[in-house]
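tool=predict chain=A
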Amino acid sequence: MSAVRVLVGTRKGAFILTADGGRDRWEVSGPHFGGWEIYHVAGSPADPARLYASQSSGWFGQLIQRSDDGGATWRPMGNEFRYEGEPGTHQWYDGTLRPWEFTRVWHIEPSPDDPDTVYAGVQDAALFRSSDGGRTWQELPGLRNHGSGPDWQPGAGGMCLHTITLDPVNAGRMFAAISAAGVFRSDDAGKSWRAVNRGLRSEGIPDPGAEVGHCVHRVAMHPSRPEVLFMQKHWDVMRSDDAGETWHEISGDLPSDFGFPVAVHAHEPDTVYVVPIKSDSEHYPPEGRLRVYRSRAGGHEWEPLTSGLPQRDCYVNVLRDAMAVDSLDPCGVYFGTTGGQVYVSADAGDGWTPIVRDLPAVLSVEVQVLP
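tool=predict ok
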């Protein structure tokens, strides 16, 4: 029977949760790097034993850690993230220009084919790639040098490149999402980029056709249908059916269209999950009821999934990287909260159980299915 490994990044370390395919009895390992912020932990699809972790501290800076034995042991990798050429400047809230400054790695995206190839999205927004398992990193400067780059502004959490989506069918195509700039697509393996934000509408942007300036929170796709993208935006849940060329809203009957994560069922490309929160200032579930919402029709019509989730006095949040699915049948769905709970549904969202309840605030959740 297959096994499941859940990789959890938190404010105070990383945790590894393991179970067999039944997903009902769990073992907890950690904290790894206790006391450090672990923004993201990701496993290589090409080598299940290979894990990467983004380790950050205001005192000691940014580190990339790598494990080659499923998290039993770790070693630090290369941690030089240098912008290529002259950094230049970008816009700020007050209209002033500020230099680009590397702060941390928000997201790690291993290649599906090569365990030594891995991408990193950083703050201030830039994309890096390593071809030697994380030992050295090179910026893909075409993104930051996009003509709109000087106009990019930070979202509330910083100007972060938080989503890297690799097209499993078209090897040259990839997407990057930046808060608060929008979505960008490359069709030549990251050499050149263009903004793909047509159809997005954002308060504070008077030009409805603005190329950039949209605060995108997360983008997801199903590997069997990579031209269809789902987006959770700063207000609005959106869908594209043409690889980002155009977007249309699918918020439908959600109680709030504000939230951070979005995920797609492993076997049903039109089954989508979001976790609404009340507003951009009140980062907790509407009415204090923790509800995952599922659409089986690719959006517009949504159903609340509440079985096993707290339905009163619950004021946690689910961050953009803190929701994932596994590839088992039935599909498992996982999410972690800022209150330190990690939940699993082994039946595609119909019922939920907590794996752990008292971790530090959860920043990221990823899942591996092991043979």
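The radius of gyration is 19 Å. The helical segments are 141-144.
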